[in-house]
Design brief:
Blueprint: H1 3-15, H2 18-23, H3 29-43, E1 48-51, E2 54-57, H4 59-88, E3 92-97, H5 99-103, H6 106-116, E4 121-126, H7 132-135, E5 141-145, E6 152-167, E7 187-189, H8 193-198, E8 206-208, H9 214-222, E9 228-231, E10 242-246, E11 252-260, H10 266-271
Helix pairs in contact: 1-3, 1-4
């Protein structure tokens, strides 16, 4: 039995839906349903009632629930112990992350690890394209945006909403911006699929930036070339000439921990035991 899969199934039980839990973990609903079938086959009992409204536990499932929770908790304790031993053995935990995450979400993670395991060596690789670091083994784990990478697992940390980035004098009477507002100024299009999908049709005047460096996009807004739409974590240190404006319809990305499904590194698995401590982090 896979404790990580059982942990996600426990989330599905709380949500009353395979779909809701699958959305947060790079699973399809059918894949998570298949995982539930596999667990039921291993235990030789039916755990879930399934219908068009969602899922619930059977009577047998209710009786098994505390044991499943204990199983997940026991593995979390084992991971913590493994990380402690890994630190004592002088191992290194290699973390990749966006520059925006390095400034915001990563410091409390590192602070927690340093206090618990002062002998653990942590190596951090900062960049805007970090997912590839897993495939070339330059990172054991990556704090990044949820994405469908093959042979990886994803544990969510928080939601990062998108905001409009404009000059201080723009939209001074607006508390939020609508899609139509973006047609009133030239739009600087970042290299971001979520931003492109936000628009039913593109604004008339568009400057396309083929770069994963949001600083260049922000610089163009600063020079009065147009306005843009970026994740809030990317704009925490804006120049004084600029400001952010929320959207009237929420657009957000999910940030979390990506790691190889076949990872055998003790430090990687043990790190997961710390994530619930950071699950309440919000960008708002």
């Amino acid at each position: 039995m896979d404790a990580e899969v059982i942990r996600i199934l426990l989330e599905a039980i709380r949500a009353g839906s395979f779909s809701k839990a699958a959305q947060s973990h790079c699973y399809t609903p059918s894949a998570l349903s298949h995982a539930a079938d596999k667990l039921e086959n291993e235990l030789s009992i039916t755990l879930f009632n399934r219908n068009s409204k969602g899922i619930s536990l059977t009577d047998d499932g209710q009786q098994m629930l505390p044991y499943l929770m204990e199983f997940v908790e026991a593995q979390a304790k084992m991971r913590h112990a493994a990380l402690t031993l890994s630190a004592k053995n002088g191992n290194t935990l290699k973390i990749g992350c966006y520059s925006s995450i390095a400034k915001s979400l990563l410091p409390p993670v590192l602070s927690k690890l340093n206090k618990a395991l002062p002998n653990l060596t942590v190596s951090v690789v900062v960049g805007d394209i970090t997912e590839n670091l897993l495939s070339v083994e330059k990172a054991d784990v990556v704090f990044a945006e949820k994405c469908a990478l093959p042979n990886t697992l994803f544990t969510p940390l928080c939601k990062d909403p998108y905001v409009a980035v404009v000059r201080q004098e723009d939209f001074s009477n607006k508390a939020t911006l609508t899609r139509d507002d973006f047609f009133k100024k030239p739009f600087i299009m970042p290299n971001d699929l979520l931003v492109r999908n936000y628009f039913d049709s593109l604004p008339i005047t568009v400057i396309q930036v083929f770069s994963d460096d949001n600083d260049s996009v922000i610089s163009m807004v600063r020079q009065g070339l147009g306005i843009t739409l970026l994740p809030k974590l990317s704009v925490v240190d804006l120049p004084s000439e600029l400001k952010t404006v929320p959207l009237d319809t929420r657009v957000e990305r999910t940030l979390g921990l990506i790691y190889r499904a076949d990872s055998s590194a003790d430090a990687v698995h043990a790190l997961l035991s710390y994530l619930p401590d950071f699950s309440q982090l919000t960008v708002d």
